[in-house]
Give the backbone structure.
Amino acid sequence: MSRKSESVDVVIMAAGKGTRMKSKLPKVLHLLAGRALLEHVMDTASGLGVHSMVVITGHGAAEVEAVCTHRFGAATHFDLTFVRQEPQLGTGHAVQQAVPVLPDNGVTLILNGDVPLIEAATLRSLLQECAGERLALLTVDMPDPSGYGRILRVGDAVQAIVEHKDATQAQREIREIYTGVMALPTVQLKKWLALLRNDNSQGEFYLTDVVKFAVADGATVVACKTADKVQVDGVNSPVQLAELERAYQMRQATKLMEQGVRLADPARFDVRGELVCAQDVSIDVNCIFEGRVSLGEGVRIGANCVIANANIAAGAMVHPFTHIDGEVLGVSIGEGALIGPFARLRPGAELGAEVHIGNFVEVKNSSLARGAKANHLAYLGDAIVGERVNFGAGSITANYDGSNKHRTVIAADVHVGSNCVLVAPVTLGAGGTIGGGSTITRDTPAGALSVARAKQVTIANWQRPKKIKR
Ligand code: UD1
Ligand code: CA
């Protein structure tokens, strides 16, 4: 009778209201490190190579399902199903709703949508303890266990879980609690779920009652105790959400520092996505990294930078207060480039090696070749800028005519003076010079000086008007 199977189906409970969040947003959609709590759980579960995920929704079901579908609907390596629980009659009742969609062979792993920091390694060892045939409970010792289900043992053997509200005074002394995570053979789960009753202090169908049915059946129940409370902490309030956010960020900071990254202060550092660093990267205080960011060897990031979806090559320096947001197109910064302070790089900014972008310079959907410079107060949009171009202070590309965007091409070694307007589409020939204050509407030839402004006029002996006496 081989019921053993490698196949794991995950049930994630996400129907609860989350009253204590005091928010219109369903609890499991609140963000931690830029991802919804439920996304964290699903990401971790999908890393286990599971067969399917069943998300139990209730409060804000449509919203929750939309977020999951957007993020995982196209996933090919597991089936995603939603089951609605309406009304919510307890955790056992929640899992009962999933019964029709769970295949009989294999193991069911039950997770909570509001426990975001559970790690794959912990779940793998729980599944190992389950071994396709046992009921494995994830437990933890809590300094203050009030509110939780207590693990009742006789000797070492687990006998039952008793909910706090149903527990005797003596049982309430027990510090080992059920974390809300269990793994068990699906056939047995279904059998025991069918036996649940709600004759308890809360009038709910408790999932935790499956333990006593398992024991009555002579099945083996194992408790895997974790020492890592952060992994099993749930989010019920904004305070707990912020605590877990800090715990998560400190873990990411520690990992990076262990790889050699120098963080000025790990407590003032946030990664909301994935940050990959080569050797000898240093990051000053109050920086936020979002999406996918990679930093090459020796890259230095100044204080108070926000950097999203960007690749920054070796030796580049990003000075304080720089905002980089690559969105979908991305931003790339070449080797040895100098960016900021107060620079803004937007999607499609492709900066070559040794490029300089200074204060209050905005670059969008533009490429700048090696050694090009825009050091002060400038806008480059939809532009192709050649090597060694110097783009003067206060100059801009007028890339938008009110309806369409147009290209500006600036060939190598062009010198654009200060306060110029380049009205696109327009091409500036190589090595040309554009006089300061010019509004350039036509292509300029290579090697020439082009000036497009009123000629200076001088009126000798000019008398200023006299002040009128009243
Ligand atoms: C549950 C456990 C308790 C454990 C604790 C760990 C039960 C009966 N008790 O308690 O032993 O120590 O978790 O945090 O299981 N949910 C639904 N539908 C429902 C009820 C709940 O989807 O009808 C979801 C909630 O949204 C939440 C999860 O299930 O994500 C747990 O529910 P919650 O009310 O927090 O369970 P507790 O009573 O705290
Ligand atoms: Ca809870």
Summary: The chain has two domains: 3-232, 254-450. The mean pLDDT is 97. The chain has nine helices and 36 strands. The pocket of calcium ion (ligand 2) is lined by residues 234 (CB under 6 Å).
